[in-house]
Amino acid sequence: MSSCYVLGNRVDPLTLAGAVARVTEFIRAGTPHHVVTLNAEIAYRAYCEPELQALINRAHLVTADGAGILWAARKLGTPLPERVTGIDLLQALAVAGARQGWRFYLYGAAPGVAEAAAARLQKEHPGLVVAGTSHGYLSSREIPGLIEAIKAARPHILLVGLGAPKQEYWIASHLEELQVPVAMGVGGSFDVLAGRVQRAPAWVQRLNLEWLYRVIQEPGRVKRTLALPKFMLVVLRQAHKRD
């Protein structure tokens, strides 16, 4: 199936299983690949920020991270098969990675969080290889050392939890230098895995209210959610023009 576009941002019409299969192909190829999990907030920001939109559209895989993207795709006449969030894809890749011997590197979040997230992943997926971790509060002077540490660890998958779109810009800037087969931004997934933040219950996810659950847990996110009505308005305008 061909990609669809939401506010000019490419989204690949894949299920979670399809996304894992695509990542498996990237690892077999061995060349660097950038994976983006796109939600409505970042889609709207990219709509207003051409540099970010170009980065997203250059990525090797873009998944629909959130109900907002699915809703927009339906409105624009190019429905997507299902939501593929960053944390769900991360967990699915951990399952496949434990089976296939892939090496993972976790970079991001506050000190101690990536290590705790790695420990939980290894407990839940026996045999999973974590080649290294680093927190995300490094100075610019420390980044060259991080780059060398990642290169020395030779991961198949680099998970970057710096928050979007900072993590997307970071990956794009260092992908060729790192030569990691797969680099993927995972937002706040390390905090969830480490138990610092609770993910919304399944019933809340089914109601497409996970964003509200996050805001209740982290009131500081309120300002970010103001992009959602703007996103919906632009989508409705574009859908109206289609009709």
What does this structure look like?
This is N-acetylglucosaminyldiphosphoundecaprenol N-acetyl-beta-D-mannosaminyltransferase. Belongs to the glycosyltransferase 26 family. TagA/TarA subfamily. GO terms for molecular function: N-acetylglucosaminyldiphosphoundecaprenol N-acetyl-beta-D-mannosaminyltransferase activity. The chain is an alpha/beta fold. The protein has one domain. Helix 1 crosses helix 5, helix 2 crosses helix 3 and helix 2 crosses helix 13. The longest helix is centred in the C-terminal third of the chain and has 16 residues.
Key words describing this protein structure:
243 residues; two-stranded antiparallel ribbon; single chain; six-stranded parallel sheet; TagA_TarA; glycosyltransferase; 13 helices; N-acetylglucosaminyldiphosphoundecaprenol N-acetyl-beta-D-mannosaminyltransferase; 8 strands
Strand order, biggest sheet?
4-3-8-7-5-6
Q: Report the end-to-end length measured between terminal Cα atoms.
A: 23 Å
Please summarize the sheet with the most strands: 6 strands, parallel
* Count, helices: 13
Summarize the helix and strand pattern as letters: EEHEHHEHHEHEHEHEHHHHH
Estimate nothing, just give the exact number of structural domains: 1
Into which percent range does the helicity of residues fall? 40-55%
Task: Please tell me how large the radius of gyration is.
Answer: 17 Å
Number of strands: 8
Structural class: alpha/beta
What is the residue-averaged pLDDT?
A: 92
Q: How much of the sequence is in beta strands?
A: 5-15%
Pfam families: Glyco_tran_WecG
Protein name: N-acetylglucosaminyldiphosphoundecaprenol N-acetyl-beta-D-mannosaminyltransferase
GO molecular function, one term: N-acetylglucosaminyldiphosphoundecaprenol N-acetyl-beta-D-mannosaminyltransferase activity
EC number: 2.4.1.187
